[in-house]
Design goal:
single chain; elongated; mainly alpha; 81% helix; 4 helices
Length: 97
């Protein structure tokens, strides 16, 4: 149980670090001096942002593939490591979810 909490804490810490970097990058919009350019740039980022979600999903899929292919783990083991159930782990691996 302590190992599971440690793994979760490690993932949470890494996710928080990445989210902080994303927030810092978004704050660059605030530094654009021209209000019209700032508004248009913020609109462009907001419009294109949903497409960037795909990158996180691809990274997750590649990580699950590495666990399965490179490390030889089965989907129940992968599911336990990433905090989901085995069918969801399989769907992530297949790129379905």
């Amino acid at each position: 149980m302590a190992e599971e909490t440690q793994e979760t804490d490690g993932a949470r810490a890494e996710a928080d670090r990445v989210l902080e970097a994303v927030r810092d990058a978004l704050h660059l919009l605030e530094a654009i001096p021209d209000a019209a350019v700032r508004a248009r740039a913020a609109g462009l980022v907001a419009r294109e942002w949903p497409g960037e979600r795909r990158l996180a999903s691809e990274i997750r899929q590649q990580a699950v593939d590495a666990l399965h292919t490179d490390q030889g783990l089965d989907f129940p083991q992968i599911a336990e490591l990433i905090g989901t159930d085995r069918s969801r782990a399989w769907r992530i691996w297949k790129g379905i979810s």
